[in-house]
Amino acid sequence: MGGLTEAKLKALAGKRSFERGLGYVDAVSGVDVDDDRIRASVRGTERYRVELLLGGRGKPTGTCDCPYGQEGNFCKHLVALGLTLIAQEADLPRLRRSARDAARGLDAWLRDLPREDLLALVREEMAADRQLRRRLEVRAASARGDLAGIRSRIRELLDIGPFAQYGYVEYADARAYADQAGQAVRAIRSLTTSDRAADAMALAREAIDLLARVVEDVDDSDGGLGQIGADLADAHHEACRAARPDPEELAHWLVAHALDDAADLTDVDPLDYEDLLGERGMAVLRRRAAEAWQAKRTGWAEKHLMHRLAKSGRDLDTVIAVHAADLAPNGHTHLLIARELDAAGRTAEALEWAERGIRDTEDPAAVDTALVDDLADRYAQAGRLADAVALRRDHFAARRTLPAYRQLRAAADAAACWPAERERALALLRIDAERARTHGWRVLVDVLLDDEEVDAAWQAATEHGAHDGQWLVLADRTRPTRPADALTVYLPLAARLSRETGNRTYEQLVSLLLSIRDCHHHLGTPDDFTTYVTDLRTAQKRKRNLMRLLDEHGL
Questions:
Q1: Nearest to 253 by CA among 279, 281, 275, 226
Q2: Edge to edge, what strands does the sheet with 37-43 contain?
Q3: I need a surface site. Which of 194, 467, 499, 555 has the fewest CB within 10 A?
C-alpha cells in the first residue's frame, strides 16, 4: 500500500475534499493495478480518469482530469480511489500478481503470433491510435537513416495544431501536447546513440526553435513544456559531446541562442560547453558576447551573458562596467557594484559607489532602502556616526515611515543625539498630520506608540484621526488605566462586527467582548456588561457558531 492511510489522504486533499471524497467511493470503477501505479474511473459530473502513484514510503501523488484536478490539486476523486485501495488492501497483492501475470501472458501471446498476424495487429492499432503511429514513424525514419523523414516527424510532434482551439492549447490539453513533444526529444536522443550525433545536434537546435515559437500559445501552468525545453537542451549537450562540433561554430550558436527568446525555455549555460569549446571557442564566445553587449548595453540578455562570462573569468572590472552601463534610477545597481567590490576587498571603491547611488537618485523617496541600510552600516563601522545619522535623517524625511523612524532612532541613539533628532522627526510628522499629507497622521500615531508614548499617541489619534487597527492598539494599551476611553473604541467596533457573519468575524467579536468585560471590571460595573452581553445574545441567537464561542469563553 506504500503506507497509504486516511490521514495521508486528508493531508494531501484537505478536509473539504477528503470529506467530499467519502461520498464518491461507490463511484470508483475499473481499478487497474500496475505495481504502485493505480488507475481507475470515477463517476462525478462526468466520468473522470484518475491515476494514483503510491511511491513506496514517500508521499502519494495523483492526477485526475476533472477541472479541480487539472489545476494540480489532490481532488475528491483521488480521495475516493485512495479510500477504495485502503478498503481493498488485502486484495492488492493479488491484484498486482494478476497484473503481472496478464503482462507476461500478453508478451507470450505476441511472441507466438505469426509475423503477418503481428504486422496486421500493429497496423490496426496504428489506424486507431494516431500518437502510436507517429512514434513508430519516427523510429522507422531513424532506423532508415532518413534525416528528412525524422525532421518532418519532429515538426509534426511539435505542432500544436491538433491540440489547439482558436490557436491556443488550453490547460486540459497541455499535458497531452507535452507528452507528444517528449517523443521528439526521445527521437533526437536515439540519433545520438545511433552514431548520428551531428544530425541529433542539428535537430535539437531546430526543435528548440520550434518549441520556442509555440510556447506562448500553450497553457503551461504545470511546467511540462519547461521540462521539454530542459530535455532538449540536455539532448543538444549530449549530441555535442558525441559529435565534437567545430568550436567556433558552436560558440556562435551558443551566443545567438543566449540572446534569443528560446534561452528562457532551455536555460542553456554556455559555460557548460567550456571543455568542448577549448581556448579557441571560448575566445570566440567572449568576443561575440562583448560585441553583442557593446551594441545593446541595456539589453537584459546581453547583460546577463556578459556578466556571466565576466564572473566566470573573474574579470571584476568588466562586471562593474556591465552594471555601470545600465544603472537603475533608485540606486540598486550601485549597491550591486558596491557588493562586488567588497567581495574583492576594494572597500574604498565600494563606499564611493554606495555614496554615488544616494547622490544619483533623483527622488529621495524612491531610493533603494537596502542601499541606505548598506551605506549606514559602512558609516557606522567606520565610526562616522554623524554621517550615519544624517543619512537616516534624510531617508526618514523622504519616506516618513515607521521603519525609517526606527532606523533613525537606532543611528541617533548610537550617536547620542536621539532627543534632538526625535523632536525634528516628530515635527515633520505633525506638519504632515495637520496638512493630512502622505498619511502622516497614521505614522505619527505609530511612532508615538513605538516610543511607548501612549497618551501622546491617543491625543494625536483624537486630533488627527487613526484607523481601526491603531485605535484597537491604543485601547488595549490604555485599558487598565483608562477603561472608559477604551470602551469608546471597543463598543462601536463590536456593534459593527455584530452585523457581520463568518467564523473569523465571530472570533474577532468574542475577543472584543473579553476586552469590554475587562473594562467593566476596572470600572466596577460588571452588571452593565452582563446586561450588554444578554442583549447581544438575544439579538444574535440565530448565529449558532457565535453562541458556541460565547459559551466556550464564559460570555
A1: 281
A2: 28-34, 37-43, 47-53, 61-64
A3: 499
Tell me the three cell numbers of residue 153. Answer: 516527424
Q: What is the DSSP letter of 201?
A: H
- Alpha-carbon distance 504 to 531, whole Å? 25
**What are the CA-CA distances from residue 517 to residues 163, 356, 500, 538 (Å)?**
65, 58, 21, 18
Contact 129, 176 (CB under 8 A): no
Task: Count CB atoms within 10 A of the CB of residue 314.
Answer: 9
- Cβ atoms within 10 A of the Cβ of 143, count? 10
pLDDT of residue 3: 67
- Rounded to whole angstroms, the Cα distance separating 111 from 114 reads 8
Nearest to 184 by CA among 163, 160, 164, 156: 156
Our measurement of the distance from residue 61's CA atom to the centroid of its chain's CA atoms, rounded to an integer in Å, reads 20
Q: How far apart are CA 183 and CA 519, in angstroms?
A: 72
Which pairs with CB-CB distance under 8 Å and at least 24 residues apart come from 325-331?
325/297, 325/298, 326/297, 326/298, 327/360, 328/368, 329/360, 329/361, 329/362, 329/363, 329/366, 330/361, 330/366, 330/367, 330/368, 330/371, 331/357, 331/358, 331/360, 331/361, 331/367, 331/368, 331/371
Nine-digit cell string for 416:
547620542
Question: Which phi and psi (to 5°) does residue 296 adopt?
Answer: -150, 80
**Neighbouring C-beta atoms of residue 214, cutoff 10 Å:** 18
CB atoms within 10 A of CB 301: 16
Q: How far is it, in rounded angstroms, from Cα 16 to Cα 76?
A: 9
The answer to whether the CB of 159 falls within 8 A of the CB of 184 is: no
As given in the structure block, the three cell numbers for residue 533 are 452581553
Residue length of the chain: 555
Q: What is the pLDDT of residues 387-445, one digit of tens each?
A: 999 999 999 999 999 999 999 999 999 999 999 999 999 999 988 887 765 455 688 99
User: Average pLDDT by consecutive 10-residue portion of the chain (555 residues)?
Assistant: 77 89 89 82 85 73 84 88 83 74 82 88 84 76 78 89 89 85 88 88 94 91 87 95 95 94 88 94 95 92 93 92 93 95 94 95 92 95 95 93 94 95 92 68 88 91 87 92 92 91 90 93 92 91 89 89
Cα(354)–Cα(327) distance, integer angstroms: 12
Residue 53 φ/ψ region, left for φ over 0, alpha for ψ in the -120 to 50 degree band, beta for the rest? beta
DSSP 169: B
Cell of 540: 444574535
Answer for the pair 18, 75: CB distance below 8 angstroms, yes or no. Answer: no
Cα separation of 83 and 1, whole Å?
Answer: 11
What is the gyration radius of the CA atoms in the chain, in angstroms?
35
Residues 6 or more apart from 438 whose CB is under 8 A from it? Answer: 400, 432
Which is it for strands 61-64 and 47-53: parallel, antiparallel or unpaired?
antiparallel
Amino acid 239 reads A
What single DSSP character describes residue 165?
B
Mean pLDDT of the chain: 89
